[in-house]
Every structure is written in C-alpha cells, then in structure tokens.
Write the structure tokens for this entry.
Amino acid sequence: MQGQSVEKNARTAIYPGSFDPITNGHLDILSRALKIFDKIIIAVLRNGSKEPLFSVEERMSMIKQVTSGMNVVIESFDGLLADYVRQKETNIIIRSLRATSDFDYEFQMAVMNSQMNREMESIFLMTGKEYFFLSSSVVKEIASRGGDVSWLVPPVVAEKLKAKLRSSGSNNGEE
Ligand code: COA
C-alpha cells in the first residue's frame, strides 16, 4: 500500500505465477531460490488473463502439499504485482528463464515492474535443461489427451489433474 512503510527483508523473495498447476519446473526454480533466500513467498495470481483449470484454492492446496518441509509461505494476489510487492516484507521477485524465448517477455515485465515500483528487483534463475520446454499448459494438454505426466509434475498434482479432467469430461485417456 502506498504511503505505508514495510520493513524489508533481503533474505526473503517472492515467486509469483499462475501455478495452474505447479510443475516440477516450478519446484526446480523454488529449490534453487531457497539456496539463495531463507524464505520464499509463493504468490498465486488470482484473476489473470488466462482461464484457469484449477481454482486459486486448489492451486494453493497443491503447492502446500508439494512444498511441505520447505521454508515457503503461500499466498494469492490480485491486481498488479508491483503493488502487491509494495505491501510485502521484500522487494525481490524470482522469475524463471527457460529457453531464450522467455527473455523478451521477462525483460519487458521487469522493466515495467520497476517503473511502477522503483524498489522492486527481479532475479532470474535458469531452470534445469529437462524443464526448458515445460509449462503448465503443456502438462494440461498432455493430461487431457490421456498422456502420462508423472515425469512432469509431483504425484499429487498428477492425481488432481486426472480427477479434475475426469470431472470436467475432458480426459480422453484410458483409465
Ligand atoms: N518450469 C515450468 N513451467 C514454467 C516455469 C518453470 N520454471 N516458469 C514458467 N513456467 C510456465 C508457467 O507455468 C506458465 O505456464 P502457462 O502459460 O501454461 O500457464 C508459463 O510458463 C508462463 O510463466 P509465467 O510468465 O511465470 O506466467 P504466469 O502466468 O505463471 O505468471 C505473473 C505471470 C503472475 C507473474 C504475471 O502475469 C503478473 O505479475 N501478473 C499480475 C499483473 C501484473 O502486474 N502484470 C505486469 C504488468 S508489467
């Protein structure tokens, strides 16, 4: 919130995203971030431009299950990331770079965010090469066509995906 001073902590960072759902690629970034920061706030975007498969609560619940034992706090946010960061105890956000194609978009976002919040810093971490082409959409696409996603997401997420797609009638896979 503007005008309110929040004590900032350089040992904490925010990892924002849609996480619809969280994948092994996100967890890879998270474990790298926890080598640098003591605590990570995972910030799930509430009303993004993408039509989500899972509700925010479902996404947060999956994140909670797959990050148990890690020093993370799971929150949701709405509106601009730059405004959300202003209210938090850190100015640092973690973004991930997969293939070089991420760079243009990330560069634009980092510049725009720092224009809107001068205190904000974006830190970019590279994913492991096995996750270069992974995205939540790819996972949903494979799962919805009955493909195996157990190598892309934690078991609990694979299960939730199966159940969600079954209930929405979009799983073409053999059971
Ligand atoms: N491993 C696997 N997948 C990854 C990944 C990784 N390391 N890093 C990113 N991805 C995936 C994401 O799951 C996402 O997949 P999807 O498009 O299929 O859902 C895709 O790559 C893009 O990731 P990302 O750029 O992080 O998008 P996002 O939707 O997860 O998060 C926000 C974007 C929430 C950070 C951004 O939209 C935001 O800040 N919104 C708030 C409004 C705002 O302030 N806008 C900024 C204006 S400058």
Q: What stands out?
A: The chain has a mean pLDDT of 92. Residues 12-133 form a domain with the Rossmann fold fold (CATH 3.40.50.620). The first strand starts at residue 12 and ends at 17.
